[in-house]
Amino acid sequence: MIHHVYPSQVQYVGEGGEAVYTNGTIRTAYSYNPEAQLYGQGSGGAYFDSQGGGSQVTTVVSSASGVPPHGMVGITMDVGGSQIISGGSTYLIHGGGMEGGRHHASHSSRSSSAMLEMAIENLQKSEGIATHKSSLLNSHLQWLLDNYETAEGVSLPRSSLYNHYLRHCQEQKLDPVNAASFGKLIRSVFMGLRTRRLGTRGNSKYHYYGIRLKPDSPLNRLQEDSQYMAMRQQPVHQKQRFKPLQKVDGMGDSLSGGSQHSASTPEQSVAAQSQHHQQYIDVSHVLPPFPIPDLGTQPLPERINMNDVKKLQNLYRDHCEATLDVVMNLQFHYIEKLWQTFWFSTAPSSDGTTTIPNSDEDMEGVIPRQKLIALCKYEPVKLWMRSCDHILYQALVEILIPDVLRPVPSTLTQAIRNFAKSLEGWLTTAMSDFPNEIVRTKAAVVSAFAQTLRRYTSLNHLAQAARAVLQNTSQINQMLSDLNRVDFANVQEQASWVCQCDESVVQRLEQDFKVTLQQQSSLDQWAAWLDNVVNQVLKPHEGSPSFPRAARQFLLKWSFYSSMVIRDLTLRSAASFGSFHLIRLLYDEYMFYLVEHRVAQATGETPIAVMGEVSGRAFMYDMSDIGSDEGRGPNEPAVKRERIEINHSLQEI
């Protein structure tokens, strides 16, 4: 439990002192009362955490005052030194390690000579390695310990590790062992390392699961396979269909360079940081099966046969799997290329390159543009493709944000928000030569996907800020004192005309809220309480066609009632108003998240599909405006105004 909170910077210390997160570089999305001292954007802060067993964790952090401009995938972390001192062990997190994940003391201790000797001894016994080769093994094992560390939820391609090892041997003029022996070397150092076969159908590759590059390893500059990792699942027909006018040169040359290559390229920096961020996403997620188009009795369009429909099914599945693989590797900028190649776009992309389709004789296995347009205008195919998009984008949300309450680095959060901001522009540019009715269908789902990413990242930001409040004893006591002064009878009287809620239900929620606050519950306990509230309120409507409407009404009533409580606190000039305002924002957003998923579960749809219905209705309000290119720039999405309408409706809720 945190006893002192200093306002200059919010930091978090886990129960075991195993991870430290800071939102010192998060751009503030909300304004709070500065007197409440919830959190700040200062340059430093400290926490002192007393733990059981007499151990003590002291964290001292300094961070840069500015944040460099953000790239498409991530900002280079500019965090100063940090030190964690624990009663049972000591270990350091150097620059950039703040958001690198959990650093266990056992990993540091494994670099000792005793551990090396033990690993060599085990190899000598199990593999019959001669004693005179011990010095060679020592060099190999020390290199592994210097550059890699164990981390849960992270995977690295097995071929990448072996390529790094071969380069090390070449530079040090050492004789490398073969790939099989190298695998035994790794397992002798990192006990319990697992191997998984990851990837899509017919293109999966073996990965070591539970290991990653250290943040300060020089190998971060040698991400020779950054483009390969992102594009390895790209369908064959897409590889044949485009020829970028510009490509990244010198990637291979930089691998063997000396001092002249010490500065990493943007592509290498992006690859290194995306690798560090992968521990916060779900890299084990697979794309669920797609439905089969229901053609019914509708005749096929002219010059279209069933083979064309089946070919589109296969090609679109491959395209979606490539999209999922690119996002899973956090190579967001490749999405634009994938869309341009699939939709035959010749418009220049954001990086200045142009995708040029090959000649007709080179396009075997590809649906010609006119056939693709005819298929997409065919109503059963249009509905099928929309269902596939719902499945794809829901999978992408679950990959990028598997837990909306879990602390994640601000750089990853901002990268996802920038990705969401670019999606609609990329799509409308890629489909600029397609009829508007096709673009509308695709853009409605992409808009719902982008809006979901923005909402979930905002919710995550609020959760990180609220943790400090919920863990501060003095602030909790002040909130209880202020809450007990609120005239809830008057609040209920004023809200009853609008909400028409059962008075006993409101009183029970009031008492439960006070008890939960008095118990100084953690954020996870509050989340469980909110989930229970939603279950109680919506249980009478389960299985009823009115369930979605009842869920929306509950959201509106919850928001109105909580606003009345905040109003009373404001009029009383409550000292904890800022804390209540932050908590209220978080709980409203989390309620929205819970209700959204309940409605999706009740209707048998994905949450993206639920939000896509709202987007689709908004797109139909003014079809003539979408069909006109007047009044908007070449890079401005045709759906910009509709997106703003959606944002306003969500904010009103």
Automatic annotation (TrEMBL):
Listed PANTHER family: DNA-BINDING PROTEIN RFX2, RFX TRANSCRIPTION FACTOR FAMILY
Domain RFX-type winged-helix: 140-214
Region (Disordered): 248-275
Keyword field contains Amino-acid biosynthesis: no
Localisation per UniProt entry: Cytoplasm; Nucleus
Entry keyword annotation includes Cytoplasm: yes
Molecular-function GO terms, alphabetical: DNA-binding transcription factor activity, RNA polymerase II-specific; RNA polymerase II cis-regulatory region sequence-specific DNA binding
GO biological process terms on file: cell projection organization
Keywords associated with the record: Cilium biogenesis/degradation, Cytoplasm, DNA-binding, Nucleus, Transcription, Transcription regulation
This protein's name: DNA-binding protein RFX2
Domain (RFX1 transcription activation region): residue spans on this chain: 2-94
Pfam (any one): BCD_RFX
Residue ranges occupied by any RFX1-4/6/8-like BCD domain in the UniProt entry: 312-601
InterPro entries associated with the record: DNA-bd_RFX, RFX-like, RFX1-4/6/8-like_BCD, RFX1_trans_act, WH-like_DNA-bd_sf, WH_DNA-bd_sf
Any one Gene Ontology cellular component term annotated for this protein: nucleus
Residue spans of biased composition, Polar residues class: 256-267
